[in-house]
Amino acid sequence: MGYTNEETEDFKEKYKDCDWKLIMMNIEINKLGQEGWEMVSNNGSDQIYFKRPVLS
User: In the chain, which residues have pLDDT < 50?
Assistant: First the structure.
């Protein structure tokens, strides 16, 4: 059994005719990119590695 919340359920309903998991993943990856994170490796659908410069 998985965990859910109201926002996720609303998102799933809005994108029920599409691959909602892929859309949600892309939104979150774009947010990380805007925060300075860089994707360095994608090892399949369940492992993505990011890095960001350390600011002094």
Answer: none
